[in-house]
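From the pipeline queue, job 12 of 40. The input is one protein chain; the requested action is below.

Action: predict structure.
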Amino acid sequence: MVHCFNNICYRGKNQVRIAWGITGSGHLLLETFETMKDIVKLGKHTVSIFLSKAGEEVARMYGILSDLRKLANGPLPLRFVRDLEQGASSPTCGKFNLKAFPVLFVGPATANTVAKIKVGIADTLVTNTVAMAVKGGVRVIILPSDYVPGPITTTLPVTVKTTEKSTCQDAAGKFTCNPCQAVDECPTHAISIIDGKPFVDLTKCIGCQRCVKCCKGQIFEFGKKITIRIRQVDAENSRALEKLEGIKLIGHPREFEKWLMSQD
């Protein structure tokens, strides 16, 4: 049966209509994407995506932007909402006052997004959805990228291996391939050679990994793991959200999946 309210239509009696807000954090992005894929595969719930400008850039870098479009199965016209198409006022956020969604999941949420929510700033699509959701009595669950101070392991998009010599040269100083095949293979012209070394412009990268696959010197890599430290101030801002009305914090995307299952 199809149910409609406030010009929003959905199927199923016990279906949960999930609004998923994505910000510009690469940390836990791929893990969150895999979690939401598993939720959609259940065939019971719908997911509508609200993408900030930075979130769209980072999703593109990690090669999942087109996959996000395919994943979104929420009610039209709220299936895939982009900050770039909303204008300064983000009028679509008003649907949260009308309870078009029972839950808003923001994950991963950057330290910048968390800090804004903490002090009540709503100047992006995602921070605006949080403000409107709380005002409308919608459950808000946030996955901060900077939750506990200290070291964490995170995953990078495409990077170039660095050495003292040009990474495009062998031990004898000869170029391994000239011209650079990766430059020719990149569909968005994100790769250039500067002073004999490859450079990846991540603002143009779509995460297709063609450079990784074609480079004979294997100097490009995707998914490199590095250790970074969470700043104390960012962790404190995240913890402060727990004191705000209508907001629940989680430390991993699978916790959202468990929460969702508890609602059945």
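Job complete. The first strand starts at residue 2 and ends at 5.
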